[in-house]
Amino acid sequence: MPTDPIPGEPLYDVLVVGAGFSGLYMLHRLRSMGLRALVLERGSAVGGTWYWNRYPGARCDVESVDYCYSFSDDLLREWTWAERYPPQQEILRYLEHVADRFDLKRDIRFGTTVTAASYHENAARWVLLTDDGHALQARFCVMATGNLSMTKPPDIPGLDRFEGEWFHTGHWPHRPVDLKNRRVAVVGTGSSGIQVITTIAPDVARIYVLQRTPNYSMPAWNRPLAPSELAATVAHYPARREACRESDAGIPLPSPTRKAVEVTAEERRRRYEEGWRRGGVPALSFAFSDMFTSEESNRYAQDFAREKITTLVEDPAVARRLSPVHHIGTKRTCVDTGYFETYNRSNVELIDLRTQPIDRISATGIRVGDRHIPLDVIVFAVGFDAITGALTAIDIQGRGGVPLRAKWSTGPRTLLGVQTAGFPNLFMVTGPGSPSVLSNMVISIEQHVDWIADCIAHLRRCGADTIEPTAEAEDRWTAQVDALAAATLYPQANSWYVGANIPGKPRTFSVYVGGCGAYRDECRRVVAEGYRGFRISRQDSAGGPPSPAAIRAAG
Ligand code: NAP
User: Fold this and answer.
1) For residue 55, which of 63, 146, 172, 298 is within the disulfide window of CB 3.0 to 4.6 Å?
2) Do 319 and 455 reside in the same domain of the chain?
């Protein structure tokens, strides 16, 4: 008989880690299937990344009407998005509303960090340990831990001696932070840094931007959403959402069909200008189909973006220092509202760390080369241990006590980005090997949550207890994800996509670049073929594993 790893403790059907977009919808789905589920969340409220990233200017760069759930028509109709791109506060209010509307909070344990998760093979159960010393058990565990939720700590010597205040954008305090008339340094010029810099520049006494790598940034052209425009979108929402699901990036734009290298210079400019006027991350990347596969095509788009910087920044020397040289899009393209123009202000100074690296932080400021910059506040916009960081932060141990950290020591390996071999009944929402960060996250989250919920329902129908990928199927999928990426320019940049920002992290490009639509098709095919590549088993040996026919019939 199976042994109970923690006798007397309730047995959940599913434990979910994280109460962001993924965890909330996962809980809703599991509850509607009649399952006993509990969500464990380290924050004191729902929201995930939007709970923590409350820095000045934090805003999503996917349009609000696409960056929301589609599972409930009523929810869609009753929520009014105020702007084209939603600010952090509005997304948080939306997620609070979702949690209340679907009565989710009663099954969420807030202020609870999961420190370990281990699989107990005899009982086919997961046991999760929390930072307050509790152990919980369940048949299934879903890691809804997010791709950009584990902050990269500032690694500049001397920070412990700094007598001013310092903040990480990804862990911004919940109390008001007054930056008015203060001398502020911002370290980092990714999406977070660009938003902070643009937002605080008018208020602070002086802002020093410590830039190591300049980034491409596209105009947001953010604006209020007129009620009539929102109503028109909602009226045709099913078609818009379907277009997102079947698209490459989870947004309702048709994929380009023409190559930049095949058209005239005039046609290229026309398409780039059109994209620039539309704005957003896809401004240039949706102009031509070969942007991520052809150096030449990518260079055309780079040249256009650099030219725009020279028109926006008055001082040519500053414009030069702000001009990126990497392949556009291979580090996440940023979206801004007046970022480059911010450098025309007299209280903004750009410090190029490529010519003068940071020496150290002192009690009163930062030393760059032989210059000391006196500061009241340092803002670290230095990013995240992305994609795998939140998973490997938990001591996850699978079959035979094998740690996930050891299994992934040379890079993550998964089947479809939802499961990894040797860790039965452990699911990841938007895990490595899925489109995740190269897509509109909410589109990918809904698809993964539905896939996982349907999978659990399927196991119940066919009387099975466990599911995990076979090693062979996982090898094939990991190789396919690698091969797709290798055919693009993505792996060439020193980006967080490849883990280059975290010392010692294995360099792998573990995002499926084939697009949301193609990925979705593959997920559907796997299910239609009886969960091809997954091993489905019954725990009670007397029952034996369900036959392939039973698995297909249950589907
Ligand atoms: P990021 O893109 O990783 O940017 C981190 C920045 O910090 C880079 O400029 C990096 O320079 C710099 N940096 C790191 N360590 C440093 C050091 N020791 N000294 C000097 N500079 C250092 O992080 P992020 O801006 O937080 O954005 C991460 C991702 O979150 C984005 O790409 C995006 O996907 C998402 N995000 C989205 C939004 C939005 O929707 N608008 C907003 C914020 C974040 P190097 O490049 O040289 O390493």
Assistant:
1) 172
2) no
